[in-house]
Amino acid sequence: MLLWLSDYLATYYYDGFFVFQYLTLRAILSVLTALFISLLVGPFLIHHLKVNQIGQSIRENGPQSHLSKSGTPTMGGALILVAITLTTLLWGDWSNRFIWIVLGTTLAFGLIGWLDDYLKISKQNSKGLSAKHKYFWQSVFGLVVAIVLIMTAGTFAETTLIIPFFKDIQIPLGLWGFIGLTYLFVVGYSNAVNLTDGLDGLAIMPTVLVAGGLGIFAYLAGHWTFANYLMVPYIAGAGEITILCGAIVGAGLGFLWFNTYPAQVFMGDVGALALGAALGIIAILVRQEVVLIIMGGVFAMETVSVILQVASFKLTGRRIFRMAPLHHHYELKGWPEPRVIVRFWIITVVLVLIGLATLKVR
After folding, report:
1. Rounded to an integer, what distance in angstroms lies between the CA atom of residue 86 and that of residue 336?
2. Is the sign of the CA dihedral 235, 239, 240, 242 positive or negative?
3. How far apart are CA 339 and CA 220, in angstroms?
4. Which residues contact 165 (CB under 8 A, 6 or more apart)?
5. Residues 18-54: tens digit of each pLDDT
6. Torsion of the alpha carbons at 320, 322, 323 and 324, rounded to the nearest 10
7. Percent of the chain at pLDDT above 90?
8. Of the candidates 263, 303, 211, which has an alpha carbon nearest to the alpha carbon of residue 75?
9. CB-side exposure of 142: number of CA atoms within 13 Å?
10. Is the pLDDT of residue 6 over 60?
């Protein structure tokens, strides 16, 4: 919206307003706008959640240290979604199809999370939406966005798997390969971020870091000169995704202000499912699926730990970890919660840097 306004003002009043046409400036402003909205709305949302007794239900088989968190306001992820949506509408180019695909996917998965959180609160237990129903709707939305992308793909690069570190390896996915990969990343990362969201600030900071890294890839993918020089696929219009990545960064930092240990509010599934799906679809759009696996390594580790734990217990009757997901294992080993959180953050910083290094190591 502000992009159109600045264009009108620059054309008819003062050409200095053309500065807002620059993607880099709008990306910076999107970070600051989303951060401002989060910090402004956050206290009112937390107060509303407290007054209406919208508190977190703690699962009985979790770490005993978490029982004291019962009743902490949850569904704070709604704050993130509001900030992301408003910021994207303000600074994004409404004519860009990628903006609507990412925003639509994010809000669709946020709706699933909202329903899950609502059922948890109304029933006063930690189960919420059944796994079967949650997975069904995730699958529906995942397949819909995959089909939309394959139907609107305009170039060969948009449906090709890129392997980092190797400049000449590009694997054509075809119809079903692309649909399958898109489904896997959108649904998979939606659940991965949700599994990671078990400690105060543990999921949101890696999300911010990974979104920032993907924003750099989106900017480069949408810039023909940079894409050609760095040998990354050029995707016309992908640069606009940088605005949405900036919104995720700003909204995430604003939410962290209230979610840092000890948390005043929890993200809930409404935030975790939405943000995971957002990271997955952005990676698909900028053709950096493998890079997302690298940068989002913490999310991958958390998910793999659950898979290994379940498989080991069913096959051998023994558990590999003291508790899964992985962050609970370290808690039960005696690590204080802030130590687990910050060390996972540090790991993510390193992984994001490795992911960015793939731009030159080819």
Report:
1. 37
2. positive
3. 35
4. 358, 361, 362
5. 788 889 999 999 999 999 999 999 999 998 888 776 6
6. -30
7. 73
8. 263
9. 27
10. yes
Q: Rounding to the nearest 10 degrees, give the CA dihedral for residues 326, 329, 334, 337.
A: 40
Q: Is the pLDDT of residue 132 over 80?
A: yes
CB hemisphere CA count around 68 (13 angstroms): 6
Q: What is the CA radius of gyration of the chain?
A: 20
Angle CA 74–121–87, to nearest 5: 40
The predicted-structure confidence for 237-276, as pLDDT tens digits, reads as follows 999 999 999 999 999 999 999 999 999 999 999 999 999 9
Q: Highest mean pLDDT: which of 13-17, 41-45, 63-67? A: 41-45
Are the C-beta atoms of 352 and 299 separated by less than 8 Å?
Answer: no
One-letter identity of residue 349: V
